[in-house]
Amino acid sequence: MFLKDDIIVDRFLVSYRDRSPYTLRNYRLAISRFRQFINPASLREAQWQAVENFKLALLNGELGKRPQSSASVAIQMASIRSLYKWGSDPNIGLLEQNPTTCVRMPKIQINSRHRYLTKNELSMLLAALKKQSVRNYMIGLMLVMLGLRVSELIAVEWRDFYEDVAETSIWVSIRKGKGGKSREIKVPPMLWSEIQNSRQYFGMVQLLPITTRQVERIIRQASSSANLQKTVTPHWLRHTNATLALLGGATLQQVQESLGHAEITTTQRYLHTVQQLEKSASDYVEESIKHLLAAK
Questions:
Q1: Angle, to 10 degrees, between the axis of helix 48-60 and the axis of helix 21-38?
Q2: CA–CA separation, 163 vs 146, rounded Å?
């Protein structure tokens, strides 16, 4: 007897319960949107054409007010792909086929080099956050200094902080990172001092018992107050963290571990920004001919 789609989706989400609540929410929303698109067909009946058409509908804006970005569509398609990969596994056997195997994911343009704040812009943003409240200032400070995703930031609890065996550094355990993976991040002494001094502005167990939407709104309002000519999101602070780390001499491997990237190729995209900021070919040309310019 075939199980109903609602039961299949619930069992899929239960099997991925080690993922962050933010990830599970995205899975549920994407799958729900896909099911509405293929209705009245069931998940079992959907062919690859339906998956392909769903992808195109998202890209072309047929399922909303405007076309969605390649990155947004890729995230939703990854949810659909995970569901079918899980359900069609011979040991699971809830779905007879996986129609997503022959559907190509949207190509995501690498544009992170444009999504970072200069040191002056960062200073202005932090000042605007501090004017809002001490808590909001700490939100910005932790995002940029630890390079956290918003979902990781709001999940941090006091018990996640610990002293290393040499009693020289404080670390924080990120227990529910992307893909359900955990990692350890060293907390800079200055940041730890700020956190300790701001205890009364944090929660008793969870430091920031707020939602991702609230954090996004806080950063957006501070960006507007600071008159930054950029549409800043919390993720920009993560990009800024990676860029400043590499500029300061951190290795790709160190940044990869700190940000929790599964692949080093994801971290390498930040080299585009670093290479632009460092000495370029035109600078070397200027050095070679500046005596000619001075002679005029």
A1: 110
A2: 16
